[in-house]
Amino acid sequence: MRDVFGIVAKWLDEGRRFALATLVDLREAATAPLGTTVAVDADASVYGNIGAGCYESEIVEACLKTAADGQTRLLDISLTSEDEILGGTACGAVMQVLVWRPALEFAAQARAIASGERAARLRIEHQSGAARVEFEHLFEPKEQLILVGATAVAAELAMLARRLDYDTIVIDPRPSYATSDRVPDATRILRAWPDDVLADLLSDSTPIVVLSHDPKFDLPALRCALRSNAPYIGLLGSRRSQAARRATLAQEGFDERALARIHGPVGLDLGGVTVAETALSILAEIVADRRGGEGAPLRAAAGAIHRHRACAP
Q1: 300 found inside a domain
Q2: Residue 86 domain boundaries
Q3: Which of 25, 171, 193, 250 has a C-alpha 20 to 30 A away from that of 298?
Q4: Is there a contact between 124 and 5 (Cβ–Cβ < 8 Å)?
Q5: Residues with Cβ < 8 Å from 109, sequence gap 6 or more?
Q6: 38, 20 in Cβ contact below 8 A?
Q7: pLDDT digits (tens, 9 = 90+) for 148-185
Q8: Partners of 145 in beta bridges
Q9: How many domains does the chain have?
């Protein structure tokens, strides 16, 4: 969602003519979070997606007009089942999209949004006759994902997590493992023992996955995680190793309620066998845990496909 603002800053620096389309209102279904933005330049190069289906071309066309004349436009788009164009196959969303051309000074704000290092606010105003639209969205700092063990699974997890707007911190005391060559998509790599650094890193919004397969790394990491408010604690390993880790922790005084916080074996049952498929199953469980999903096939569920959380990041 925020990657498009990196492109915006680049295009502003290049003096490229372009316009943006930002989702400013949404009802009935969550096709994308509010603040989601598409960039379209004068040559019709498109970056980003709002989830407007067959109306994406209408958004692109409006952006091309705004790129040329600088006029702000407000689009009302209905993806309801009554829509003749969609033939009854729509998701039911009703959305407003504001099409606008940013000023040169917006480049700094765009970079701040793209980096995710701190909270950054997007504010847009639109005046059309007597009607006025004001939109403001706060982009929260990127959330962090902690991985213990600079393994092949960690490398795949860091790559996928980057697309899910996480900054990934990898912890491993082994000099030959804790390198950017092994985990190129990690935001930070800490060459340290887990119990020396985790207390300062874990919070109630920081999931942690323990991947090292070695009790001298696993156990200190699990102790720290269980003493924290981490929302998700994942542990890679066979059922035998899971039982062994739990038995040790139980002997140390962790009760069943505490041990039940450990997602182990970590991940959803996707039937995967490769490292990439393992990473996918782990992140799928993290997303399901965060969003309140069941991890079951959508065809087996009733109700809306998208939970309407318009202000979610």
Answers
A1: no
A2: 3-139
A3: 25
A4: no
A5: 120, 121, 122
A6: yes
A7: 999 999 999 999 999 899 999 999 999 999 999 999 99
A8: 168
A9: 2
